[in-house]
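Lab notes, practical 5.
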Amino acid sequence: MASLSQNVIARRSGAFTGRKGLLDKYFYFFMSLAFAVLVVWGFSHTINDVLFHPAVPRPFLLWIHGAAFSGWVVFFIAQSSLVRIHKVSWHRFMGWFGAGLATVMVALGITIAIIMARFDTAVLHQTDAYAFVAVPFYDMIAFGASVALAICWRKKPELHRRLLFIATCSLMDAAIGRFPFFYNNNLFFAGLDLLIVLGATRDLLVDRRVHKVYLYALPALIAGQSLATYAWRINPPWWHAITQAILG
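Output from the prediction step:
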């Protein structure tokens, strides 16, 4: 009887270990694919009217912007795949390409935010375009800071991979915001945070604790998101003055 009980416990333990091993080894790879699906699904709602067949042609730089940011998702999938097949030297080599791409993305993200704010105001006659730049500006700060820290701690894999995961999550509000419900109810940041919470949940299940990267990063991100949303939706005098100084 004791032997039978031990066998049952062993089978249950093995089942949990299998699930734990799957999360441990493949979580970031599966999430990289999920990011790709989310980007394709989200932008499918707007890309035809905005880029492919717009009533009013958009600035050409918007195509470059889309290519660069899509390239980051491809890069993240590739890097996650290289880790899984144990091509660490390739992963490190490709990492420097990612550092360069991230630098270009931050500069490009800020530039296109300014260009599109002017375009949306002057050509499409939108009334809140200037105030909305708070969102892409914040996105570039969150993304750029996360990537910079990941580069600094590239020799500490437990920090490095979580920071790059957070950096990629920080870009997903652009895809989530393409769904009218999330945009209209200011929930695209909440959807982004949910992706990060999945990372914290993975740690809790695998390591029995949430890694300190999430404990420090998530509150800071939420504070920044709240400020960006406030600046956009309320457009207080101090933010109005800043946007007028930047955008003219």
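Observations recorded by the TA: The chain is about 85% helix and 0% strand. Residues 10 and 223 are 45 Å apart (CA to CA).
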